[in-house]
Structure formats: C-alpha cells, structure tokens
What we know:
The chain is mostly helical. The protein has two domains: 1-92, Hypothetical protein af1432 (Orthogonal Bundle); 93-185, no CATH class. Helix content is 71%, strand content 0%. The chain is built from ten helices and no strands. α2 (30-40) runs antiparallel to α3 (46-54) and α3 (46-54) crosses α6 (78-91). The longest helix has 21 residues, at 121-141. The chain is globular. The relative contact order is 0.12.
Amino acid sequence: MDEILQKIRDFADRAHGEQLRKYTPERYIVHPIRVMERLHQITTDISILASALLHDVLEDTPTTADDILEFLVPLIGRPAAEKTTKLVIELTDIYVKSAYPRLNRRERKQKEAERMSKVSADVQTIKYADILDNSREIINQDANFAPVYLKESRSLIKDMKNGDQTLRTEALAIIEHGLKILNRR
C-alpha cells in the first residue's frame, strides 16, 4: 500500500475506532482494506481506492463528509478529494431504519436498490467489491442471516448494471455459490 493510501487507511481506522467486524474479533478496517485491495486489481484511480477505504465511515462513525474532505484536500488535492467525498456519500445508505422508521427492512432495501441503480459506475464498482467481501465472510459466519443478506445483495447487484462487469459477475457468483452452500445445510 503506498504512502497516501496508508494515510487514508489510518484516517479510516481512527474513524472506526474500536469497532470490530461483526463476525470476527478483527478491527473493522480489515474489511475496507480488502475492498480497496480487490479494487486495486482493476484500477489505480486514487478516488476509487480512497473511497473503498472510507466507504463505511459516514454510515458507521460520527465522521462527516466535511471531515473527510478537509482531511483529503492536502493529501490528494481538491478535485480528487471532492470526487472521493462524493463517492463516499453515494455509497452511504440513505434508507436506514433511524431515518425511515415506518418502512420495514424489505421496503428500505428496495428503495436503496432503486437509488443504487442510478449512482455512478464507480460507486457501483466499489459496492460490488464491498458485497463480494461481505458475502465471503457471512457465508461462513452466520448461516441464519446469510440467506437474507445474500438475497438482498443479489437483488441490489441485479439493479446495478453500470460498474465493472468482471467484478459484478464475481460478486453474483459468490452470492449464488453461498446460497447453494446454505441450502445444503
């Protein structure tokens, strides 16, 4: 990982603080690192890679978009910092329970899928990598919730058609594989 990405990783790690992955005792940052590393196999775009490292910061921490932008400008310049911040904002779920308490989970996920079908190809590509990493983990760690997550993710990806097609295909394949494994149990 180059020096700039290391600094962004450290910022994201500090933002997540003591958060751990849901199913393992690892620090939360291991997930964004894996997402970024998968994306690094297909792009060198600093905004995409930085967004991968920061993709859960707005959703899961008190950090604001302004905090991200302020941190990034001196590091990668204003245009790349603005693009990165925009990508992170687009990656952040809008239809969450706290904001839409009257909608049930299925309704919130459906609205989120509709929203994500209209976001940029870059955001969809990052989301494919995010789902890919989460799917691998959940299949092995939570057989009860995994079918729900995998079906929601499959529905989401089927609506998101503009990102990197190789990564999209890979994410759909891991989801289908996971559902087959879970159906055999």
